[in-house]
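Hey, quick one: can you model this chain's 3D structure?
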Amino acid sequence: MYDFIFLQAGGQEAPAGAFPIQILFFIAILGVFYFFMIRPQQKKQKEERVFREQLKKGDKVVTIGGIHGKVTSMNETSAVIQVDDNTKIRFEKTALRPSATE
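Sure thing. Here's the predicted structure for all 102 residues.
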């Protein structure tokens, strides 16, 4: 009723120059991945670390939760942020980012 033809690839190999091209293509993909994904993330982490090290009293900051305030005091790992006239909240320094309205 139905005739099927099955073709079998036999004995065909990749061209001689295909392997080096594949390696170069793979290296190029890794390079693009590094420059567009890994390197910007490392740069951002470094900038945040420098910001936390240079943080001082009076700096305007934003928390990772979106709370805006001004640093009133700090110690090694945390800072007290004044968010209103009578409201002060203690945050870990890792939760603070520089304010864009500075």
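One thing worth noting: The helical segments are 18-54.
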